């Protein structure tokens, strides 16, 4: 009966995950959810006006193109093909550009569910309780349905956990095929995000210990390791080749036409330099000055703030259990010398809880060495944390607290946080592509101030069109904003020109200082800007919606 109830609850939460993706979720978590895949592929595949981030420029290639092509690139190719075949007249629009890559990631997110169901019995957890805890977490509902490289990192980490764990308690992952798959997943994870090695190291050491213990001869064990290394090298060659062709003069367009050329033509087009994006990524991020450009945080931010923000009570339970394990080890060291053998002693199935804690805290410690620390960097850790928390029913007595915590997290990050920007872009897309605009050319200037970077692709403007100009003012101070507004409002280059300003209600008073007049205004509700937070007292006034809204103002 309990398993059946848990099964129905998981199915309900899974349906919520898919339906909320299709709704769609309005919350905007971080610019990287757009600018590390969908925005780039919208320009490459659909030839739309986009903003290419510096990581995807040929002068500074720091991100592999393989995963963007396999995810956003594939979905955009499908909707482009459907439109070309007249299956639907407007397959390419702001909604499909937003939702189609997210829907693919949402489908992929069920790899997490499968992994938890497979791993739970081995680690002493109830499979259905673990599934409910995973599916009910706002991290799964919000972060894993977005186009983050961190979400892919979490999925690859989950696959690796399945591969390194025996199928049954007391078994061994001695299948030679698993060694090759582990090498492929490890290399792919490294090219997706080099930080994947921090998550993969402990599971790989655990797997290596099982292999050594289960093999009767050294030759057999070495064979497993050679298979891992060779498959990892082959995968790396595939990624390097694809990235080199993309980021050099050959380009994406010529990748599609290579199949029609002779071997000599292809050799003649080979680039002069090889592009290894993870090395460029590490070279950039190991420089403290570069990290400071993206924001510096205290080294304890992940441990004291980000993990608590993402996982709540589960993080507290893990910390409490970790302290107990350390006390036990220290006690054994004091009593019997070296009887407590450190990490090697923890990496055995009989010490399942301690091993899961190691899978959780080791990546957390490694990522804490870097000064730039964002919550999304930790989302892969939900898997070992869920398995640990549901073993021995640790999380049961905190059920009500976790429900409230995850509901608040889902509403805050999935609905409120920068929640007006995507509906605003949908509104402007309809305006730009309205019949009135189609009958005769109108010039639009769209100025965004004090918002996250707007993904231009959602406006669905062809690259060849020049009648729409997007200006991102980010968090510019009042003087710079007023100068820009004055130039745009008083120096129209044509008769039929329209200037729109998109700005949160919390800083709308800035426009009064600028002395510009407003012709029309549209309020998008809700929109919560943590960079320009609402004034608490005004939330209790008659003007409270303005504090939680995003304005589209026509000058």
TrEMBL record:
Its main location: endoplasmic reticulum. GO terms for cellular component: endoplasmic reticulum membrane. Belongs to the glycosyltransferase 22 family. PIGZ subfamily. It is a multi-pass membrane protein. Pfam families: Glyco_transf_22 (PF03901). Pathway: Glycolipid biosynthesis; glycosylphosphatidylinositol-anchor biosynthesis. Keywords: Endoplasmic reticulum, Glycosyltransferase, GPI-anchor biosynthesis, Membrane, Signal, Transferase, Transmembrane, Transmembrane helix. It is found in: Endoplasmic reticulum membrane. Its EC number is 2.4.1.-. The keyword Ribonucleoprotein does not apply. GO terms for molecular function: alpha-1,2-mannosyltransferase activity. The lineage of its organism: Eukaryota, Metazoa, Chordata, Craniata, Vertebrata. One of its GO terms (biological process) is GPI anchor biosynthetic process. This is Mannosyltransferase. The chain crosses the membrane at residues 56-79, 91-112, 127-144, 151-169, 181-207, 228-247, 303-326, 346-369, 375-391, 403-428. Residues 1-21 form the signal peptide.
């Amino acid at each position: 009966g309990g398993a059946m109830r848990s099964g129905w609850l998981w199915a309900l939460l899974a349906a919520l995950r898919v339906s909320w993706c299709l709704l769609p979720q309005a919350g905007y978590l971080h610019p990287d959810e757009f600018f590390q895949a969908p925005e780039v592929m919208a320009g490459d595949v659909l030839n739309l006006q986009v903003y290419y981030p510096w990581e995807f420029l040929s002068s500074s290639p720091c991100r592999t193109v393989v995963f963007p092509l396999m995810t956003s690139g594939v979905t955009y190719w499908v909707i482009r093909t459907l439109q070309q075949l007249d299956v639907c007249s407007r397959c390419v629009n702001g909604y499909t550009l937003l939702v189609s890559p997210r829907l693919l990631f949402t489908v992929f997110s069920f790899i997490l569910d499968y992994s938890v169901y497979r791993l739970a019995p081995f680690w002493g957890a109830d499979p259905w309780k673990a599934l409910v805890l995973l599916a009910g977490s706002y991290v799964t509902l919000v972060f894993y349905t977005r186009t983050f490289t961190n979400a892919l990192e979490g999925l690859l980490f989950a696959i690796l956990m399945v591969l390194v764990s025996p199928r049954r308690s007391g078994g061994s992952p001695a299948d030679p095929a698993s060694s090759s798959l582990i090498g492929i997943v490890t290399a792919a994870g490294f090219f997706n995000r080099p930080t994947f090695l921090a998550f993969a190291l402990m599971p790989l050491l655990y797997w290596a210990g099982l292999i050594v213990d289960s093999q009767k001869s050294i030759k057999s064990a070495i064979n497993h390791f050679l298979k891992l290394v060779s498959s990892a090298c082959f995968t790396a060659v595939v990624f390097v080749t694809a990235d080199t062709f993309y980021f050099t003069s050959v380009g994406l367009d010529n990748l599609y036409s290579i199949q029609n050329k002779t071997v000599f033509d292809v050799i003649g087009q080979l680039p002069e330099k090889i592009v290894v994006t993870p090395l460029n990524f590490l070279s950039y991020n190991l420089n403290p000055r570069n990290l400071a450009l993206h924001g510096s945080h205290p080294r304890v931010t992940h441990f004291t703030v980000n993990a608590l923000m993402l996982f709540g009570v589960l993080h507290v339970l893990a910390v409490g259990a970790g302290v107990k394990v350390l006390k036990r080890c220290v006690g054994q060291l004091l009593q019997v010398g070296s009887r407590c053998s450190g990490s090697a002693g923890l990496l055995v199935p009989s010490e399942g809880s301690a091993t899961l804690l190691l899978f959780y805290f080791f990546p957390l410690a490694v990522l804490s060495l870097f000064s730039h620390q964002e919550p999304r960097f930790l989302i892969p850790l939900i898997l070992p944390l869920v398995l640990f928390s549901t073993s021995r029913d640790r999380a049961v007595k905190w059920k009500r607290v976790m429900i409230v915590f995850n509901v608040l997290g889902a509403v805050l990050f999935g609905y409120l946080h920068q929640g007006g920007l995507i509906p605003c872009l949908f509104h402007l897309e309809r305006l730009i592509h309205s019949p009135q605009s189609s009958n005769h050319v109108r010039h639009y200037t769209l100025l965004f101030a004090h918002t996250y970077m707007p993904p231009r692709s959602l406006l669905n403007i062809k690259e060849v069109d020049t009648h729409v100009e997007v200006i991102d003012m980010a968090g510019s101070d009042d003087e710079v904003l007023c100068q820009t507004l004055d130039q745009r409002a008083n120096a129209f280059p044509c008769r039929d020109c329209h200037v729109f300003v998109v700005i949160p209600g919390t800083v709308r008073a800035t426009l009064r200082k600028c002395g510009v007049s407003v012709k029309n205004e549209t309020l998008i509700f809700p929109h919560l800007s943590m960079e320009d937070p609402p004034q608490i007292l005004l939330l209790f006034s008659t003007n409270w919606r303005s504090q939680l809204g995003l304005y589209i103002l026509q000058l």
